[in-house]
Structures are given as C-alpha cells and as structure tokens.
Amino acid sequence: MLPNTIQVVAIPERCYRCGGVTRGIVGVLAPRSTGTVFREFDEVAESLANVLNPEVLRVGGIGPIKPRRSRTRGLYVSNGCVHCDAILGSFPLWERLNEVLSEGFQLHDFALSVRIGDPARQ
Ligand SMILES: [Zn+2]
Fold this sequence. Notes:
It is a single chain. Helices cover about 25% and strands about 40% of the residues. The chain is of the alpha+beta class. The protein has one domain (about 5-110). The strands form two sheets. A four-stranded antiparallel β-sheet has the order 3-2-1-7. A three-stranded antiparallel β-sheet has the order 4-5-6. The two termini are about 20 Å apart. It binds zinc ion. Zinc ion (ZN) binds next to loops. Zinc ion binds next to loops.
C-alpha cells in the first residue's frame, strides 16, 4: 500500500434522485500485521470525513463524506451522490453490499486506494 493512502470499499449504486451512477463507501480495509481487517463505514465515518478530500473522492466517483440529514436517522456523517449530493443512507448501502457479496463479489473487488490528508489543507 502506498503511504498516506487508505483502502476504501465503495460500491456502485444508482442514485435514487438523479439516476446517475455514484459510489458509496461501505467501509475501509485497515492494514494489520496479518493482512487487512474490514471496518464498517459507520464506525469510521467521522474519521473519514476528516481525512478524505472531496476532490480526491470525486475522481473515484465517490461523493463527499459529510454530515447530512436523513428522515430516519437525523443528522449523521454519510455518503452522498457524487452528482447531486443526495444522501446515500448507510443502511441501503449495507443492503446493497450484501446483495453484491451474495452474487459472488468480494470486498476487494470494490476496494480502491485514496490519498488522505487534512481536506482543509489540500
Ligand atoms: Zn444523484
């Protein structure tokens, strides 16, 4: 793995609002001496929001990670559509992940390395 990068697992999803294809982060593959361990988005969302630059994410087809309001959960750090910024709820993304895993895909199939750093300073 390159220095100053993090492996995010981001699955493609069709936005319910604009119909465009966007990607939502369902978790990260965190390095361990024994390999990598998957950590769910909700566990790491606030840390991700602090280190992932929206412009870097955009290149990967991923919307900004930031607080958005959902009808069911209120304000929380969430994924959004890269085109229109509609919230991509953690629960629907999680369901979508289980769907693609049941189709035979693996987490690594959706992993991509993104550069990290303080978004305010890039
Ligand atoms: Zn959209």
